[in-house]
Design goal:
This protein is of the alpha/beta class. The protein has seven helices and six strands, in the order E-H-E-H-H-E-E-H-E-H-E-H-H. It has a single domain (2-189), classed as Flavodoxin domain (Rossmann fold, 3-Layer(aba) Sandwich), CATH 3.40.50.360.
């Protein structure tokens, strides 16, 4: 089993990385393979609503990480999305990536556990956390719980190491993720399949 941890911070080894690394360390102790994937600082496209991905399962833009993430998601069993807090929301690049990855590759995420992790110096964490969790709940993904909201505080990685409660929350999150993955695997082996989905009904507010 494998968990993909997505580092949505522009800083490869900042506070978000410190939080994700603590979760990854415990996942490895639990026998779960991990990969921390850094989005980097290159420009990321926003979705242009071209609908091409509906036919191909891939985004039309080939020059940023979205299609790579969609491909990785197919072979992963769980996900942790990490982000710094920018103006009480997730990093803009991460938001743009997830918008397109979930629109084009939603089937690669469905019925796999997901969790969001946010990092901030002081405030705005719960709003950013809420925004990221919405990706899971629109994609039939079980949300992994922890002992508190998944946030680590600090202006840099050294600060994050002093947030004892935040790091403990990361460890609890990782153990819960491992438990859910093993439970789902046991269910599959017992012949329990995912629910049969109804055809999607799409309406709008004028009819």
């Amino acid at each position: 089993m494998k968990v993909l941890l997505l580092n949505g911070s522009p800083h490869a080894h900042g506070t978000t990385y410190a939080a994700l690394s603590e979760a990854a360390r415990v996942l490895k102790e639990e026998g779960i393979e991990t990969e921390i994937y850094h989005l980097g600082t290159a420009a990321v496209h926003g979705c242009i609503d071209c609908r091409s991905c509906g036919k191909t399962g891939r985004c039309v833009f080939q020059d940023d990480p979205v299609n790579t993430i969609i491909e990785k998601a197919a072979s992963c069993d769980g996900f942790i999305f990490g982000s710094p807090v920018h103006f009480a929301g997730p990093a803009g690049a991460l938001h743009a990536v997830l918008d397109r990855a979930f629109y084009a590759g939603k089937r690669n995420f469905a019925y796999k556990p997901g969790a969001a992790v946010v990092c901030c110096r002081r405030g705005g964490a719960t709003a950013a956390f809420d925004s990221l969790n919405k990706y899971f709940t629109i994609a039939n993904m079980p949300v992994v719980p922890s002992q508190y909201w998944n946030m680590v505080h600090g202006a840099n990685a050294a600060d994050a190491q002093q947030d004892a409660e935040g790091l403990q929350t990361m460890r609890t999150l990782a153990r819960n993720m491992a438990w859910m993955l093993r439970s789902f695997e046991a269910g599959r082996k017992a012949g329990i399949s995912v629910p049969t989905a109804e055809p999607i009904a799409r309406t709008n507010f004028i009819r």
